[in-house]
Structures are given as C-alpha cells and as structure tokens.
Specification:
Strand order of the largest sheet: 6-5-4-3-2-1-13-14
Shape: globular
Strand content: 15-25%
Number of helices: 15
Number of strands: 25
Distance between the termini: 56 Å
Length: 526
Amino acid sequence: MRVTGTGHASMRIDTAAGSIVCDPWVNPAYFASWFPFPDNSQLDWATLGQCDYLYVSHLHRDHFDAKHLRDHISKDATVLLPEFPTSEMEDELRELGFTKFLKAPNEQVVELPGGLKIMIQALTSPTDGPIGDSSLWVEYDGVRLLNQNDARPTDLTVFAELGHVHAHLLQFSGAIWYPMVYELPQAAKTAFGKQKRERQFDRTWRYIDDLKADHVFPIAGPPCFLDDELFQFNDIFGDEGNIFPDQSVFLSEYAKVGGTNGIVLLPGSVAEVTTEGATTTHPVPVEEFFANKRAHLEEMRERKRPIIEAEKASWRHPEVDVLGEMKRRIEPLLDESIYLAKGVGGPVRFDLVGYDGESVESIVVDFPGKEVRPYADEKVRYRFRTERALIEHLLHIGEVDWVNSLFLSCRFSAARIGQYNEFVYAFFKCLSEERLQYAEGWYDEHERAVDAEDITLDGWVVQRRCPHLKADLSRFGIVEGDQLTCQLHGWKFDMSSGRCLTSVGHKIRAHRADADTPAPAGEAVS
C-alpha cells in the first residue's frame, strides 16, 4: 500500500485494486485565515486527482475544499460516503459534479472490486464536526490503514478487532479558537493554551496506545496563518501556550513518551507500507524543512497576500440589514429550539465593528426570550466581537454553520462568564431547519431514554421524534387515517404496524389513544 502525503489531512492511498484520495484541501478556508502547511498548491493535482475513489471525512472546510474538488478531482471517482444524519455532504458533492456514491453502512466492512476493503465509522453527535465526522479504515493484501484524521471516537476497538493495523494517521495539533481569541490577560491565555496543548498530545497518545499500529503518521494539522492580523498564531515564537504545534514538535514530544514509530508526510512524501515495515521518501529533508519553518511561512505569506486581499474585498455587503436578516433567519429556529435554547440559557451578544473600525452595533440573540434584538444594556454571559462585514457575508451567502466559518477563522474575540458551553456553538452550527431538528432530537434522545416521550396526534399516541432525522412530530407530523407524514423530509409511516413507508427500517412506535396497551417500538398493535 502506497500513501502519498498531499498536505494537512489529505493523502492519496494507492493499491493494486484502486486509489483513494482523502480530504484534498488546497485553497484558504475560514475567511482566508487557514492555509495548508506545508504548502501543497504546487503539487501535480492533475495527476493526483485522477483517482478511483474519493473520501471526504466531514464538511469542515479544511477537509471539504469545494473549489479544489470541482476543479481537480475526477468526476469518475466513486465517493465513499459516511453514513451521516443529513444529506448535506452528498448534496454538496453532487452540485460539484460527482455522480457515483457508495453509501457505506456505519462500521461495516465493504469489499470493493479487486479485494480492496474499506470501513467508515461515522460520528454523529452535534459536537462532531459540522454535524458529523468520520474515520476510514482500508485493507488490501493484508495491509491495514486507519485514517482517523480529526475524528474523536470513544475508542478504537471496532478497528482493532478487524486485525492489526500497520499505518495509523491521526490528528495531534489544535483546530479550534480557544484560548487565543478570548479576552484574557496574556498570562492566563498562555496557561490555558499550555493546558490545551498538553491535553491534545495526551489524547493522541491514548489513541496511539489503543490501536498499537506499526507506524504512526501525524496529520490534520496544524494550519498556518498568513494574514498579518493572524500571523502570531503560528508556532514559531517560542510560546509554550501555542495550540498549533507542528509535525516536528510531535516527533519530539512522542519521543518523550517512548514513541519511535512516527513518520512525517510532507506534501509529496511517499510511504510504502507493508506488513513488514514502511519505507518513506521525501521531496526535501524533513528536519531541514522544519528548521527553516519561519522562512517558509514568510515566503508563503508574501505569495498568498493577493489571495487574502481578494477574499477580504468580497466580504462587505452594505445592502444587508444585519439585524433584520438575523431576526428573519434565527428567530424561527429559536422558536423551535428546546434543548439548545435551554442549554444556552441566556442572551448571546454580538458586537459588530463597522467599516471604520470604530463604530459598534450590538445585537443580542436572546435564547430565553426567543428573539433577536438590539442590545439593551443588560448583563450577558457570552459575547463575541467581530467585523460587521463578516456577519454580512454569512447572511449574504446563507451560511448555515457559523462555527465552520466565523469561529474557526479566529477573526473575532470572545468573552464569557463561567465555563465553556457547548450549546452556544451547537446552535450556531445548526442555522437550518434540518440541522436544528437533528440536534434537538439528538439531545432529546440523550436526555431521556431513547424515544421515551410520546405525543398525541389525531387520536394516535406516537413517539415525539421522527425515526429518520429526529424532527419534532408535534410540529411536523401530519396524520391522515392510519398514516403519518413527517413534513420536514416527507417521510411516511404506517402507524398500525410501525412500518416506515419511505425506507427500510426506521420503525415508529405508535398506538391508538384508546388502546389499552401501547405496542413496543416497531411492533404492530393487536
């Protein structure tokens, strides 16, 4: 099995039974704040993109590069599609021209032509990436590889049970905005950053120890920051609180815990992996490259400057009424939100800095009040400060995931009273009906016993959440005779038998309100 490094979490896997390109990312992401490092834009993508299969682990834009996928990856490739709770990834890939999809059942081995085997583990918590993350296991001729990339499963047992793994590729560096953007004294920011850096490595060591693969490849980070406003986030200034250590730092830290099997892949590096070992060739010496990291970053900064400036010029949309558009888009979601709104528990304030760099408009997303309104000089627990132009752009393009855009860009500052609140970020990555309903249903299931809450609809007692994507049937359920339709996606169910009429599986629990005994989920009422 040949593994060619193509930057960040991207790689090409070649076997005699076919090739797989994974997570190809080249263009800047998150408001032009993140770039791949080392630079991979000068690779021969015309050749690399001629592949048999494409695997995109999740929709984060440092993994899902729409422009690069459209321009450089063969549309004859079959997409290995994780079993995610929404169809967003498939929909976006179809818009880019991909037509062949293999929908991999979660955690089930699929044998492809020629003896190539794959298995995809999909993680589907609202906190996993943008509503989903995944890992890819590959086997050919006895050689096994796990591309874990960013995914954080509870354990790796499902992969270990398939046989000894020879190559384990996983994240080790930061991919978040904490604590750099928080309005804290520098000493506190450094202390929190140091703790996070240590936790990142500790998590990586745990995964490595769980799988015990022959070879470990540090991937999926760090990005580099080339805008002058963000350049200080690169780990080149001797800051022990920097959360973006690079691959050379990984090797050094790994050695301290006894690790001797680490292999770095630069863009263009090639590792030949067998059951007996691995041999790797590099386009330049690895140690020499990282010894000159600052020079490489400074050269990249000048070369990419026109790209950054062009992106910045596209963000302003003065015709957008920010308060009005936020009310129009967010208030209906607030009205539907139960678990996320309760979890946030208070107002969230956005301070929007005007084009002049001084004037500020403050807008509150009031979760208890279920409204978006001007700030009324009240106390808030969560506050974000960013350029008005960034919010204008998000509203202009209809972005449904502000986490996978604004927050990951690090182009904001934040303050909070109390601990981190996952519900704040879960809500702002769910600014669509489909995502919000899924997240609400997920939290509903994990707050209660699975599907424990019932509602009554037109003489029927039925579980509150649609078995498909957990939509609230008290809002979206329509009963006609013995048939229930979930209006969110049009799925239909025969309530007498519990059978789903739209797809295999997804049985519903229902019984007539005047029945003596309710039927267990999926069983017919006698």
